[in-house]
Amino acid sequence: MFERKAMKQLEDWKNASNGSSALLIEGARRVGKSTLCDEFAKANYGKNYKIIDFKYASANVAKCFDDVSDLDAFFVSLFLALGIAPLPKGSLLVFDEVQFCVKAREAIKLLVLDGRYHYIETGSLISIKENSKQIQIPSEEERMELFPMDFEEFLWAIGKKAKSDLLREIYLGRRYLLDAPASSSLLADLRLYMAIGGMPQAVSAFVSTNDMSMVERKKREILGLYEEDLAKVDGSYKTNTRAIYDLLPTLMARQSGKTPLNLLGIDPRTSLFHSTKEKASESKIFSLVPRTANFEVGLKSGVDPSAFKVYMNDIGLGLSHYYGLTVADARSFYSKFLSDELRSNEGYLYENLLCQMLRASGHSLYYGYWSENSGTKEKPVLSYYEIDFLFSKYGKVQPIECKSSSTKRANSLTRFKARFSDFSRKPIVVSNKPFQEDESKVNVPFYMAFLL
Predict the structure, then answer these.
(1) pLDDT band at 128 (very low <50, low <70, confident <90, very high)
(2) How many CB atoms are closer than 10 A to CB 387?
(3) Dist CA 411 CA 422 (whole Å)
């Protein structure tokens, strides 16, 4: 178990709720939901907790939830079926993989009102939504999403917490102290993070073996599960989420996350298109970033439903998928990648990295697109502008440009600032340059982006 920031979220929920609400933890497979719950329970409840994994629970356990009208009788039956002594009041019950027992989720309302125990649920959002169509969703349920480990958590895991502490000090104190060797060292750590990613099993494989072929083996296992999951989703819902997954290497080659609908093969006017987007997003395998053209009232109000960018939920998994890596070629590839010897443009990789960092920080992301007439009414000359990422912060829009190389200009960001300054915050450019702030913009290096 690695130190995770989500532990603080769980502790905040426990202290604020004190049993008055259940917590539903969503997230991709293998992102560490069950392990997080187990460690949280040990740290905060001692021995007074029980994790019920409904994927493997006996039929007798699931049957207990058929009737919760008499809770005294229900708990007697439940603990007998679990083969344990009744837990004292205030203990924690974790309903792991709750999508496999929808009646357990439906019972949450009564269980919370009963006040006997505290409750956490985990599961797949797609299955939870599908299986919950016929039940009343409990209003006593809070939600949180667990993301892959961010760069700061990765530094903690590999024994470099002092570096992350220094980055916080520099960023929050607006200090500019990093010299060239220190910056180079952090960029090397960042590339290692991009290679491994934030899935706990991949990080664990690196920490325990320092062998990138073992890391790749773990990543291939996870990608295999994802491919199976998408096939099941498409089979169940008649969607085409696998087409999005298969398109990602093409987006990498094009160095653009914008999804060409002609290659996706789905008409955006059909229900198939919208249901595919919905299921792809709910899978937590992807991050879908919609396009917006409204920067004044609200980003969501200007969304074009047929235009979106797509990235993998984890940069390490994305790297393996984009380049079609195998375990056999892992050592050779990663040797070149970590030495920055790959000749291909890596703009899409860095966009994926930034998207992951911003999502993990809790931001709902959009990308901006608009046109302006620089000619006359009779002879219009349209100029087109695009902002890589936008999110709302304190009632204003935060524009962010991702610059993987020093040659990429920020014309759109300059124009955005000039036209929409009344509705936006100071622009941020995320690049591999050191941290610096002036009157016009803030330059944040990628290794500090987790602080945004």
Answers:
(1) low
(2) 25
(3) 19
Handedness of CA 194, 317, 272, 256 (dihedral sign): positive
Q: What is the pLDDT of residues 212-232, one digit of tens each?
A: 999 999 999 999 999 999 999
**Dihedral through CA 371, CA 374, CA 380, CA 386, nearest 10?**
-20
Q: Look up residue 157 and give its two tokens.
A: 């895991």
> Can you say whether the dihedral through the CA atoms of 165, 167, 170, 176 is positive or negative?
positive
What is the distance between the terminal CA atoms of the chain, rounded to a whole angstrom? 26
Q: Which is it for the CA torsion 50, 54, 56, 58, positive or negative?
A: positive
- Examine the fold and report which residue of 123, 145, 167 is the final residue of a domain before the chain moves on: 145
Per residue in 67-103, pLDDT (tens digit) is 999 999 999 999 999 999 999 999 999 999 998 998 9
| Among 430, 424, 297, residue whose Cα is nearest residue 357 | 430
**Averaged pLDDT score across all residues of the chain:** 91
CA gyration radius, the chain? 24
pLDDT digits (tens, 9 = 90+) for 257-274: 998 888 888 899 899 999
Helix, strand, coil distribution of the chain in percent, nearest 5: 50, 20, 35
Same domain for 305 and 423? yes
Q: Are 136 and 164 found together in one domain?
A: no
Say yes or no: 39 and 165 in one domain: no
Query: Which residues are CB-contacts of 68 (< 8 A; sequence separation ≥ 6)?
Result: 74, 107, 110, 111
